[in-house]
Amino acid sequence: MTRPPSDQTAAPRRPAPLRVVFDLDGTLIDSAPDVRSVANAVLDLWNAAPLTLERTRDFMGEGVPTFVARMCRQRELPIADHDAVMAEFLARYDDAVTLTEPYPGAIRMLEDLRAAGAAMAVCTNKPLAPTRAVLRHLDMERLFVTVIAGDSLPTRKPDPAMLHAAFAALGGDGLRIYVGDSETDAETARRAEVPFVLFTEGYRKGPLDQVPRDHALSDLAALPDLLAQLRQAAAG
Ligand SMILES: O=C(O)COP(=O)(O)O
Ligand SMILES: [Mg+2]
């Protein structure tokens, strides 16, 4: 019995190339303890009360200038001192790496994606020097084609320019995905018109159901399977 032609000719389609861009703080690494320690060392210079970890997380997400502005407002530091506060903060931030940990399964997940042929980048509002320092400290730098940081371009997320630059560095066509933890990341993905995966265990400020996203996950180890499914669907 001859098979119908469709069965004879059905060859598996090549999966689409995968380009994945990751936010950093609150997505791949839990860096708030280091940021808090920097903030509190600076606040101590002004004899101001320290920040809790929770408040530190709340202040993160839009980069150092916004973090420092929120911190100064919260502790009512004199406006005339804000530039000096910023300078003291930045001076300490570059090597603030020892309290930071990758989220469970983050490095294994990145290695799995790379083994599956994904090209990956970091797109973070954190400045480049502390970003490079922490990635090196955690032996994660090797996993990324490029890093676009909070001082790499004239604008920061949620302006989509950083995300566009990250995908441009990854090159070519294929399936594009942005993975992040915050409202800022969701808005960046929307403006860049890139599908967004929300990591739910990071530094989001509001309720989960109010963050627009295409997919959500609480365990980074689930990302390779999700992306494999999306890749197959994209291959048709
Ligand atoms: O440094 C911040 O405020 C946020 O950094 P992120 O963009 O990696 O979350
Ligand atoms: Mg983040």
From TrEMBL:
Q: Which domain of life is it from?
A: Bacteria
Asked if the Swiss-Prot or TrEMBL record annotates the protein with the keyword Cell wall biogenesis/degradation, the reply is no
Give the pathway annotation.
Answer: Organic acid metabolism; glycolate biosynthesis; glycolate from 2-phosphoglycolate: step 1/1
Metal-binding as a keyword of this entry, yes or no, is: yes
Give this protein's Gene Ontology molecular function annotations: metal ion binding; phosphoglycolate phosphatase activity
Q: Which reaction does it catalyse?
A: 2-phosphoglycolate + H2O = glycolate + phosphate
Per the record, a Pfam family?
Answer: HAD_2
Gene Ontology BP terms: carbohydrate metabolic process; DNA repair
Entry's EC annotation: 3.1.3.18
Cofactors: Mg(2+)
The record's top EC class is: hydrolase
An example of a Gene Ontology cellular component annotation for this protein is: cytosol
Keywords noted in UniProt: Carbohydrate metabolism, Hydrolase, Magnesium, Metal-binding
The record, for InterPro entries, names:
HAD-like_hydrolase_sf, HAD-like_sf, HAD-SF_hydro_IA, HAD_2, HAD_sf, PGP-like_dom2, PGPase_prok
Q: Which family does it belong to?
A: Belongs to the HAD-like hydrolase superfamily. CbbY/CbbZ/Gph/YieH family.
| Record-linked PANTHER family | PHOSPHOGLYCOLATE PHOSPHATASE (PTHR43434:SF1)
Output this protein's name: phosphoglycolate phosphatase
